[in-house]
Write a structure and sequence with these properties.
This protein is mostly helical. It has ten helices and no strands. The chain is globular, with a radius of gyration of 18 Å. The protein starts with a helix and ends with a helix.
Length: 171
């Protein structure tokens, strides 16, 4: 079982942001790392940590796809429909890859197409992302929703051994 000291060490070695490390340090000192993971309300931190620790790619992509879908209702389809459609297609292909129905080549092609489209519509995509982020802060919903998705799809049992390895590597 991982200790808080090991969690702090892993966060440092994985270059976690100052705010995330501060949150761990300021949390209930009796909380275990597993409890901290389960009570974190920042889905972006959970996904980042899972990715940096090396969680299974399909598990991580599945969670990221579900989190991305949370933003869709907040995008003005009348003004940004093409951007929304490109995002939906990229997420669909990523989900198909998670299920083994498309290969890496298809996944990379979809990602390249979405990236090219995003570059073409960078201002629109930025505006949509900014609006979604502003909505999240204004309503306090999206962060909690993304955390709930990440916690449901990336269990502590998948993260803990990887964080332990990060904490103890190089000793």
């Amino acid at each position: 079982m991982m200790t808080r000291t090991q969690l702090r060490t892993a966060l440092g070695r994985l270059d976690a942001c100052h705010d995330a490390r501060g949150w761990v340090d300021s949390s209930d000192p009796t909380a275990t790392p597993e409890q901290l993971w389960g009570h974190c309300c920042r889905g972006d931190w959970l996904l980042w940590l899972a990715a940096r620790a090396g969680v299974d790619r399909r598990m991580l992509v599945r969670a990221a796809c579900e989190c991305a879908k949370l933003a869709w209702p907040h995008i003005d389809a009348d003004r940004h429909g093409d951007t929304l459609l490109a995002a939906m297609l990229a997420v669909h292909v990523a989900e198909e890859w998670c299920e083994g129905r498309v290969d890496e080549g298809d996944l990379h092609a979809a990602a390249a197409a979405a990236a090219a489209y995003a570059a073409y519509t960078a201002d629109v995509a930025y505006a949509a992302a900014y609006a979604a982020d502003a909505y999240a802060y204004a309503h306090g919903r999206a962060r909690g929703e993304t955390a709930a998705v990440a916690l449901r799809l990336i269990p502590w049992s998948a993260v803990e051994p990887l964080l332990l390895a990060a904490a103890t590597e190089g000793r």
